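help with this.
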Amino acid sequence: MTDLAPKMYEAIVKDEIAQTLKQNAVTAEFFKDRVVEVIEASLSSEKEQRIGQLMREAAHLKEALAQASSNQGGGELDRARQRIKQIPLLQDKIRELQ
């Protein structure tokens, strides 16, 4: 999310509607509303991408644990257990983004 601000700025600068609103004194008062719309759309998109990424990571961790459990590989099982401990953290991040 650290690179989100530059992306939002670029989206606003490239947004034809925002730029048109800004050029006209009558419509300039609506420029702020359009900027808010662009920012909300960017945040929503970023949030959806992050949720998807976290869900894929959680699914991968569950799969790794299931595979390790079926193989009963000592080191592999320990690694899977360590990764499975990350699931609650990922779930918390998903909840924060929702």
